[in-house]
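ok here's the first one, seq then struct tokens
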Amino acid sequence: MVVDFIDSKLNASDTRNAFIKACQEDFVVIGASALFVNNVSDIESCVNQAGVAAGLPDFAVVTTELDQQCSPTTISVNPPQIICSTKDDSPQTYQANAGRAAYYQKKFGKNLHGVYLYASDIKAANNANRATMTGMQEEGIKADQEFDVSSRAPQSAYTPIVQAMKEKGSNYAQSGAAQNSTVALRKEAKLQGLQGVKVWDCTLQCYDKKFIEQGGADVEGQFVALLFLPFDETKTNTMLADFIKYTGKDKADGFGIQAWASGLLFAEAVNATVAQSGVNGVN
């Protein structure tokens, strides 16, 4: 087996070229985490060995664009946020990963309220943040105020956000931008002496060594919602232990383990196809 590693470099043109290259040279895309897949024509029109436009199987991890989420070539370990049968409706219907809201309310009470920060660098990422965080709000964690923030914004950009939290008495905060956004928010809160926050919330992007390295003591007490077991619980799960063993503890991160899961899903699909149709069924 030959594996090609392609970096989309957070660039729309490079992302599209990466899929074109994969169509020309590879059988499948596994573990893709790309933010600019708003044109799936190259993926869906990719021809197989028989010359049939069967599409390039995309076993994805991160899918922010609706076209990719709802493409028949996308097989993601994470379900799409939109219910694809409603993508052409008005309004559309979304599903959110908001189960942790019940945990927070059970632990800290029903009166949680605060600020929600949405990534502003890419419209699709902003929409994805809003879909998820709207679910948190509908579960009862009310928004005192909402902000659009760039993942490249300096800490000073968080000054008015923390000031708003002070004015509103916010006890909850979540940023959907890259992990450095949460670091900047926490550092600014520490600088301004903000008190009373019960839940500093984050998702997958904060399950990263860089988060602790950059944040240090200022990010103590951070909550991070995971879709998998913590990496230090390898004794409880053989597959988790294999992931850490073959990836390396220093290289493992939240996106990597989902790419691993994508690989397992692909292997399962291939084995099932071979069992049903023989090796020639995989083309």
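and now the second one, same deal
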Amino acid sequence: MVHHFESNHTHCVALSFSDLSVWCFSCDAYLDPHIIPLLRPLYQLAYLLKFRQDPPSTFL
């Protein structure tokens, strides 16, 4: 997944609000927002909107 972040800045991704998973359509794979720094703000915002609290610090 780190390789994905370092080499593919143009891939289209989607975030599922049901389980907060992130999917890359080009790679046909799930991405881990805990490993890919660019996805962390999106994940944090989605978590806040879903649970009305910040994500636990152990997730980030």
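notes on #2: Helices lie at 2-7, 40-51. Residues 2-59 form one domain.
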